[in-house]
Predict the structure.
Amino acid sequence: MKPAAFKYFRASTTEEALQHLEAHPGSKVLAGGQSLVPLMNFRLSRPEVLVDINGVDELNRLSVEGGEVRIGALVRHQQLAESVDVARAVPVLSTAAQHIGHWAIRNRGTIGGSVAHADPASELPAALVALNGSVVLRSAAGERRLPADEFFQGFFNTALQDGDLIVELRIPVSKSRFGFSEVVRRPGDFALVGAYIERAGSSGAVTWFGLSGRPERLPVDAWPQGESDRRALLERLVGALPVDESEDYKRAMAVNVAERAYHQAEGEK
Amino acid sequence: MADERVEVVLQVNGREHRLEVSPRWTLSDVLRHQLGLIGTHVGCEQGVCGACTVLLDGEPVRSCLMFAVQAQGQHITTVEGITPENGLSPLQEAFRAHHALQCGYCTPGMLLTAQALLDRDPNPSEETIREALTGNLCRCTGYQFIVDAVLAARGQGRGA
């Protein structure tokens, strides 16, 4: 099918984008379009106004400064996957970015768009939760910063309000070691289940995605050394998550991906 | 809502086109219907199949997931743009020689993705080729012959 008609505005500054969003309630931000345009092609989404932010250069910055990785909303997944600075500061983020969609999708898809779309099986929102990142939002009323855990509220549901523009993601550079693993039917697909593991000395956390409505980060006080004890712990943790009955099989899968991610974290420098 | 028209200037295969388009028209539809470049195939319209892949400033993108107005001022290459005036490019010749197509529906997208890969890495490994092509579906060949063709086209450039 073809998208319904809409009014199109092209913004060249953040201010201009915010003015359009403010002036047209119900308008949508058009960034990479890799989630929004399929929805529009199927008329599952029929926004009357689109505000194209692809020309807003200030949203396209990627830097590591002040102990944080700062990723502008318009940074493409491929940029993230290929950034040497990111690979040095937060290697697991590079690894995960390479698993987002396919090459052609990564060339267009933006990190702001992925976070706004909040697919529960998507790699990037889960990375933000696993890495204790936050989302910087701007609206006509000003700027605010939300921790990932508050930003993602449920199935395709976020704290974004009408008139909000995602401007940046911030991810602290951590001393912890991280691992990432996922199960997909075909390369480039959304994950059936995926996991990030954090190892901070003997403690850490596991963050699962694709299991319930949003990525869930569960702290671990002490990682058991032995595999069977570790699996028992992971089983207990995943057992407490709300997983749809028809997807009960994913619990076993979740333990396996977490175990794999644990070993990957061991190898991370 | 009235279907308004806006002006857009597209650089397609090295030629400038000044067009009146509706903002809701995807790049794939404008290439096909306004410019007659029907080598760009439209399969799924949801970014899965890769048949509509074109190069945007040299990088592969889905032309069904972009509105034509968004391509203002950018350089677009379609399969027509990588085809020499006479005959075939080395990559296209390799596709022919290795039976890398049957029905041909996925071929333009395959060619553009593979060409973009060879442009950035003239000598990719089989694994790199397979990884680059994961975003293009083929329901005929089973992929092996496509991979064989790209392997055979390594190091030959785009040709005349």
Notes: The two ends of chain A are 48 Å apart (CA to CA). Chain A has a mean pLDDT of 95. Chain A has three domains: 7-52, 59-172, 177-267. Chain A touches chain B at residues 1-8, 10, 30, 33-34, 37-38, 41-42, 48, 50, 52, 54, 78, 101-105, 107-108, 186-188 (CB under 8 Å).
